Amino acid sequence: MKYKEVALTVAVLMTSGTLVAAKDSHLEWISRDGRMYWLENGEIQGVTGDPKNIIDEIYGIERGREIYDPESDAWYWLDACYDGAKAVSKEV
């Protein structure tokens, strides 16, 4: 299976016909030590400290977060307990 970079245009704002902002977000999967990690603009997502992580209400710890991969048209869980690795064979 090949993993490739996907360029996604996030936002283009126009004010009075003048371009205000345009940003490309580079999304990709990488493999390290047998685990898959999701990168946005070169940074691994779902790691401890990611502001988008879900906080466990009982234990108060970060559990990770979900992401959408437009290439596979699927949702995935990034597990903060495993440094942002994609959850596999796990109930989340």
Q: Overview of this structure, please?
A:
It contains no helices and 8 strands. The protein has strands at 6-15, 18-32, 35-40, 43-44, 54-55, 62-69, 74-79, 85-86. The strands form 2 sheets. The protein has a 4-stranded antiparallel sheet, with no helix packed on it. Strand 2 and strand 3 form a beta hairpin. It is globular and about 35 Å long. The chain starts with 5 loop residues before the first strand and ends in a 6-residue tail after the last strand.
Low-confidence stretches: 1-23
Radius of gyration: 16 Å
- Helix run count: 0
Adjacency order of strands in the biggest sheet: 1-2-3-4
Helix content: under 10%
Question: Strand content of the residues, in percent?
Answer: over 45%
- Give the CA-based shape: globular
* Average residue pLDDT: 79
Which structural class should the secondary elements be placed in?
mainly beta
The succession of helices and strands, N to C, reads EEEEEEEE
Distance between the termini: 25 Å
Biggest beta sheet attributes: 4 strands, antiparallel
User: How many β-strand runs?
Assistant: 8
Features:
four-stranded antiparallel β-sheet, single chain, disordered N terminus, 92 residues, mainly beta, globular
Compile the SSE list and pairings.
Blueprint: E1 6-15, E2 18-32, E3 35-40, E4 43-44, E5 54-55, E6 62-69, E7 74-79, E8 85-86
Antiparallel strand pairs: 1-2, 2-3, 3-4, 5-6, 6-7, 7-8
Describe the structure concisely.
This protein has 92 residues and is an all-beta fold. The chain has strands at 6-15, 18-32, 35-40, 43-44, 54-55, 62-69, 74-79, 85-86.
